[in-house]
Write a structure and sequence with these properties.
The protein is of the alpha/beta class. Helix content is about 40%, strand content about 20%. The protein contains 27 helices and 23 strands. Strands 2, 3, 4, 5, 6, 7, 8 and 9 form an 8-stranded mixed sheet that branches. About 40% of the residues are buried.
Length: about 750
């Protein structure tokens, strides 16, 4: 704010403040080069961190904080504790114990003793630190070779102004080689100065309701806090804002899908529905019945349904969805059910087809391998309206597949389809009801954060007729025990899955690489999550040649008395189908898979699964995989073979031994990682979330979801005086995402 505006005492003072506040608000979306000291070179370095605007820089939040509120001397600092010590550099040396490996060793002294500091692979410190410099260092204190030591501590120059900062919390921002953490703090501080006085877009009544600080106060506190309590207060405000913006974006985006289009209110008590229920060979569980009622209630409403059915593996989601198909038949319209693979599409048709036949509901299957003549006939019947339900894969998205009146779309394992693919199928009807299904166990708070526009139903328990399974974790050296169990199951006439991810690819966390990472990692005390490389099928890089060799080895050396088949990503859909058909029929007894075994594949006689390099999977992915066994009357055995000896990796896998609750595992998995991306949601607006932790912030997510619905009920376009400023923020925040997805 200008001096003139702040000091003027006449009637113009208030009027002169407004342009300054407006300029500060608009500065958020100016190029980062507007920030003082951001040169073209620094702007280029910031761009590599995704920082291109002033807003990006202000939301480049600290990854951790160094508590320098208590300086200890060397003699009294406790070994094994995180401490801060200030002293004078007595000596600094560059050492090269190995070729291409360097370390800097600093002897730091205070009145009570000497602290040895080792910094791996940071030779530039020789240019930045000199004998006689005053430094403050924070890190874990160790003792070896006769000295107290720190490895790769946080280093802060303790110059003349250091005493003034004593008692402050130092934020550590993600940095680059060209911009240090100290420089990053300086640039963020300059950005805060540029935007000081900016308007707060969040309605004042919401700020008062939750006792939230202003946006600028929160941004200042999270970057330059005086205490950790101040960080918590700032974070609460910014997390709420992030989630509220995402919820509003998702809800407004969904409203646009059906705006101005006729919506079908489906019949939910017709003859087809009753016939389907009468012909079910079992009674729905309470959870299944509740989910069915949720879906039918949404389909009967006079607005387009947008519902998600979340069901753990083997919980019967497909049968629940069939009631929606029956509602379509009773309404005299059409439904499409899309699966991510041909194996699943044909299996779903095989499961539901007899039930639909018994209920008088017509259906067809369309996949990429459907013969041309048959495909033409199916397309013609669908266009003519004589087909009630069309099952299929991506083949349903082809331009020549047209429906007479598509009013219900079911997308299974929806996270495996892109945003555009889902939209393309929905666009084949005017404003069809949408049902998304997933076997990925998504806790409610994560589901709200990712899919705020959807209504949700959960099925958490398997029907009692499934035998379940037990899970054991083995180190690589113990893998023989897993294969012995597999041979025992084969001898009893059962079948076995062997999952070998990334066959032939070097392991990213060899002992040497882990050691190097620890030596050069400022956060080596934190959980190393980089080992996780497989979250969904898109993460798998098949080496077909190595996979063939692996299957041949297992056939010759381990399972020589049985037939071993191979399933890998380079195979065509027809080849995969042929392999699965042989395994399902019992012609092959061992299935070696380098790709994720399809969710929903049902081979009741398969009772053992061995997963090699299991630590490279997310827990939710492992849980889905193990759901392929124990689906019949015999209990399943799952063996997770870890190629890593790291205690953190083995501890994470051990959670699989303790529970079969996929939602509990997903929550645990989320609590371990910084971003919590367990859904392959790289294509999703949730990538905009920078501070939200869906486990810790559950109550904030619930509140923001409720508030977003209330705001849109009051002002659907967010154009009223009360909401206009926040509506602008929502549109600006997701503008880039909408452009990427073509929205």
């Amino acid at each position: 704010m200008s001096t003139q505006a702040t000091t003027a005492s006449n009637g113009k003072a208030a009027g002169e403040r407004t342009p300054d506040r407006l300029a500060a608000t608009l500065a958020f979306d100016e190029p980062v080069s507007r920030v003082r000291l951001v040169s073209p070179m620094r702007a280029s370095a910031l761009a590599k961190l995704g920082v291109r605007t002033v807003r990006d820089l202000l939301t480049h939040f600290p990854r951790r904080y160094i508590d320098m509120s208590r300086i200890e001397d060397v003699a009294h600092a406790q070994i094994g504790e995180m401490v801060t010590i200030a002293g004078t550099v007595h000596e600094i040396k560059l050492k090269k114990p190995k070729p291409r490996f360097s370390l800097v060793e600093i002897a730091l002294t205070d009145r009570s003793g000497v602290l040895m500091i080792t910094c791996f692979r940071q030779p530039w410190l020789m240019d930045q630190v000199k004998k006689g410099d005053r430094l403050a260092v924070s890190g874990k204190l160790e003792f070896n070779y006769g000295f107290k030591r720190m490895t790769n501590p946080f280093i802060e120059e303790a110059d003349d102004s250091f005493d003034e900062r004593h008692g402050r919390i130092i934020a550590v921002h993600p940095a680059t080689e060209r911009i240090s953490t100290a420089w990053m703090r300086r640039l963020v501080g300059n950005a805060l100065s540029l935007c000081r006085g900016a308007f707060d877009p969040l309605p004042v009544d919401l700020r008062a309701k939750y006792r939230l600080p202003s946006r600028m106060s929160a941004l200042s506190s999270i970057h330059f806090p005086v205490s950790m309590d101040e960080v918590a207060m700032a974070r609460r405000r910014l997390v709420y804002e992030e989630v509220l913006m995402l919820e509003l974006h998702l809800m407004m985006d969904e409203t646009r899908r059906s705006a101005g289009k006729p919506v079908t209110a489906h019949a939910t008590d017709g003859s087809h529905m009753r016939a389907l229920e009468q012909n079910l060979p079992f009674t729905l569980t309470d959870e299944q019945a509740s989910a069915r009622d949720d879906i039918l209630r949404a389909m009967a409403a006079d607005q387009a349904a947008n519902h998600m059915l979340l069901g753990d593996v083997g919980t019967g989601k497909t049968v629940v969805a069939s009631f929606g198909l029956a509602a379509v038949a009773d309404t005299g319209t059409q439904a499409a059910m899309m699966a991510p693979t041909e194996v699943l599409a044909r299996q779903y048709a095989g499961k539901l087809g007899p039930l639909l036949d018994a209920a008088g509901i017509t259906w067809e299957v369309l996949t990429g391998s459907t013969a041309p003549a048959e495909r033409e006939a199916v397309i013609e019947r669908v266009a003519g309206g004589t087909v009630d339900v069309l099952f299929g894969t991506h083949a349903l998205l082809e331009d020549d597949v047209r429906f007479r009146n598509l009013t219900f779309v079911v997308i299974d394992e929806q996270q495996r389809f892109g945003v555009d693919q889902r939209a393309a199928l929905l666009a084949k009807g005017e404003a069809p009801d949408a049902l998304y299904m997933t076997a990925t166990p998504i806790p409610r708070t994560l589901a709200l954060a990712l899919y705020g526009s959807l209504t949700l139903s959960y099925i958490k328990n398997r029907p009692l007729n499934s035998a379940g399974n037990t899970t054991k974790v083995y180190a690589k050296s113990e893998r023989g025990r897993a294969y012995d169990a597999a041979l025992a199951a084969l001898a009893e006439g059962h079948q076995v899955y062997v999952v070998c991810p990334l066959v032939g690819k070097p392991h990213p966390n060899s002992e040497a690489e882990r050691k190097a990472k620890r030596e050069n990692d400022l956060e080596s005390d934190e959980y190393e999550y980089a080992v996780i490389s497989i979250e969904d099928e898109s993460d798998i890089e098949d080496d077909a040649k190595a996979a063939i060799q692996e299957a041949a080895f297992l056939q010759e050396k381990t399972f020589s008395s049985y037939r071993v088949d191979l399933l890998h990503g380079k195979m065509s859909g027809a080849e995969k189908q042929e392999v699965m058909d042989r395994f399902r029929a019992g012609i092959s007894q061992v299935l070696v898979a380098t790709t994720v075994i399809e969710v929903g594949v049902d081979v009741p006689n398969a009772t053992v699964m061995i997963i090699e390099d299991a630590e490279r999977f997310g827990l939710s992915q492992l849980h889905q995989l193990r759901g392929r066994v124990g689906r019949g009357t015999e209990p399943g055995e799952v063996f997770l073979v870890s190629g890593s000896k790291a205690p953190s990796a083995l501890e994470r896998l051990a959670a699989m031994e303790k529970t079969e609750d996929g939602f509990e595992l997903a929550s645990y998995d989320l609590s371990l990682r910084r971003e919590g991306d367990i859904l392959g949601n790289r294509q999703h607006g949730a990538s905009m979330l920078k501070l939200v932790n869906v486990v810790r912030d559950g109550k904030i997510i619930e509140a923001a979801h409720t508030d977003a619905r209330a705001m849109l009920a009051e002002d659907a376009a967010l154009e009223s005086d009360r909401y206009r400023a926040f509506g602008r923020e929502v549109r600006l925040a997701f503008r880039g995402f909408d452009e990427v997805k073509g929205g």
